[in-house]
User: Fold these one by one.
Assistant:
Number 1:
Amino acid sequence: MVQTYDRLRTALEQGTTTCEAITQNYLSTIYEKQHLNAFLAVYEDYALNTARSIDEKMKRGTAGPLAGMVVAVKDNICIKDRTVTCGSRMLEHFVSLYDATVIQKLKDADAIIIGKTNLDEFAMGSSSENSAFGRVKHPLKNEYVPGGSSGGSAVAVATGMSTTALGSDTGGSIRQPAAFCGVVGLKPTYGRVSRFGLVAYASSFDVIGPLGNCVIDVARVLQVIAGHDEKDSTSAYVPVPEYLIDIHKDITGLRVGLPKEYFDESLNSEIRSAIESAVNVLERNGVIVQEVSLPHTKYAIATYYILVTAEASSNLARYDGARYGYRSQNATDLYSLYVKSRSEGFGEEVKRRIMLGTYVLSAGYYDAYYRKGQKVRRLIRDEFQQVFQEIDCLLTPTSPTTAFKAGEKLKNPLEMYLSDIYTTSANLAGIPGISIPWGVDTNGMPIGVQLLAPQFGEPLLLRIAHFLESHRTM
Amino acid sequence: MSVTLKDVEYIAELARLEFSDEEKKMLTSELNQILEYMEQLNQVKTDTIEPLSHVLDLSNVFREDLVQPGISTEEALKNAPSATEEFFRVPKVLGEK
């Protein structure tokens, strides 16, 4: 049962369904579609008990803003007394000591957390094939990938295993799987949502965000999870606006830019026509669409993978086999405890990124790679700020292709990295981005279009996304 | 700049990782391919550009230094692969490199 939250909420308020029945329904779908491998843990008893207590609150009229919304959570976000595996042998048995701030906020809003979703190990990947617990399968064609790294979350939302889901986006990990699976995925501004309780991958890029079946659903989740948190000193002291107030407002007169660098020959022609049809919808409704230029776009992937692997190599140094996580049984002294625990506990892609990150940070190469990357990052961020002086929002493809076949890009890591070409810039610049479904290709696979806005420009981003969604022609 | 097998061994040691000979060869060629791609950044003139480490231009964030409840020793040891009642247990530290 794929349904938007507004319809569920209306049915709940009219008394035609209950939170318990809704939860039961999602649980049935999860078990029915186990072969997709979307979930790593399902909290059946907890979810049903929570649902019953929220049903009581509904009767008393004290239910919170997300009452009856069933949420699936990417398994790199901590929930107290539950495992947080990150799709890794390293953390297979690690039990969280606390709730992530986003989890606390969802619980306070009476959302029902149904389980943990599968992902690329430590969120490193674009296909959800890198999980130590098996790959996630695309719901439409099982031999295809659902995108990644939040592949399990995207599949859960697309197939009616949950109303919405949380993902994390370091370089496209919410938006690209959303595009591949035909759902909405929002990457908020860096610092808009607390990272407390999100297992760190690349701390100056990571952000938690929602996936849902419509723009309003992701807006509702963002409303609850956004805001400053004293437990995350990089979370922003920017007031949280009411995201739904202006979401239906007319968009006449707004300016949307098409960055010409996003439309080169590597873009699949069906995705190109999808963008053209979205442009037509905007223009017919009084939006001014113009070509703009972001000349440093071609350096985004190189910059991104230098900085992200550097941060990852540092963040993942904590996994030493001493205090928590996997410990090798083959260690003879402390040094071999570190080396063997890490080498046996991490998967191939994680080790590759740690190696790359260690290299770019090592003496002699730090200036040539890491520092250079930080400088180009400034150019990329400033270039976006400049473009947003002329326009309100950018419209681009989310991904250069639709979902690809499992195994297709595993042999060539660089080719896999290049599939993030349209999404990494937003993380380099710290700006918000949203992917919304826009038709399917001749193979029947979903196409996503991406909107990008200035930092903290979520209200406008959601408004244009909602408009496009309500005027979908494909 | 080209990465040699020796570089891979050195980096692996820094990263506290070990690889089979075959994996090392594979990594050498993959790292070379990826780093060669990254070298296109040399086309960008950045002499006068300051490195950016944080997109929001935050500087240090301070708070009052107040005692807050933390986790107990028992909780801290809950995920330990090996522990006594109060300490993490690890193999002998002395006499190694």
Note: Residues 170 and 205 of chain A are 5 Å apart (CA to CA).
Number 2:
Amino acid sequence: MNNKKIETKCLECQAQISLDVTTQAGEVITCPECSTDLEVIQVKPLKLILAPEVQEDWGQ
Amino acid sequence: MKIGILCSKIRLEEKLLFQEFSKQNIELVQLNPNSLSIKNGKADFGQIDLLLNREIAQTRAELILELADKAGIKTVNSAQATKLCNNKALTTTFLKEAGIPVPKTVTAFSSDQAMKEAEVLGYPLVIKPLWGSWGRLLSKADTPEALEAILEHKQALNSPHHSIFYLQEYIEKPDRDIRVFVVGGKPVAAMYRVSKHWLTNTAKGAVPESMELNKELKDLVIKTVEVLGVEIAGVDVVESKNGYLVLEANATPEFHGLKEVTSVNIAKLIVEYVTGGKNYGKN
């Protein structure tokens, strides 16, 4: 088990966020402090954006 | 064998699928619609044997599945099945025609026609968007006055989708509905979704509870997925006073809620099914 973390900061509140090294592009993470949803758009190097709002045709 | 998985968002379901493909040493490539283009009449899917759709955005997923079908790539689910499941009016029409019990439903193309049809359908009734999931933008109208206001608001959204009105009788149910998960056309697990609210989507706070599939429910779901041509699905069923009614089938079903209440490894079954594992369905 790899317990290494990737450290980054919330784009909204600058809180420290630790991501698992297995994090993949496309994952949506939630800031533990301000609850903002952030989308990982690139892993190396790590790039986050504010996750888009749910679109009208999103579904299962 | 090389599998392509179509997805732009990695949810728990996709993570579990990635893990299962890896465990079974199946070569997997993620195809993100955001990186795909159609050029010179075709999209470049690379060398894949099968495309598994897990894309959250249904419009682009349907188009990409059509193109993959056209390119001769096996798709799960197929473009046609996905289209039938994504559009509630098509789903209920096909199911009703096949004799599968569904709630009384009307699709109207103007608010005037919707108001007329509602008088026949009776109140209370439910207004659903033709597309979409998770119980979003569903409304319950107890009176003509309430329906009139809802229709006006829908039209004010100024979207072609919201100017087609899908009206359905309101079904009294026992504070729950049923989600049956299907892999390879077979029901493999089910759960109750329990809520005091009339919307029993887990996305709206309904709580998953374990349940055993009975023969009647299994047979109903098998027939449902056969009619829609869908291989992997989440079929929603409601228990009415007259028996089971099928509400809809989801072609890219989530299973994080179901995972909490079943010992069935859904991701493993999906991987076994799409890779044609000889042991699929024998467990």
Note: Chain B touches chain A at residues 7-11, 14-15, 18, 30, 32, 56-59, 86, 129, 131-134, 136, 159, 161, 234, 250-254 (CB under 8 Å).
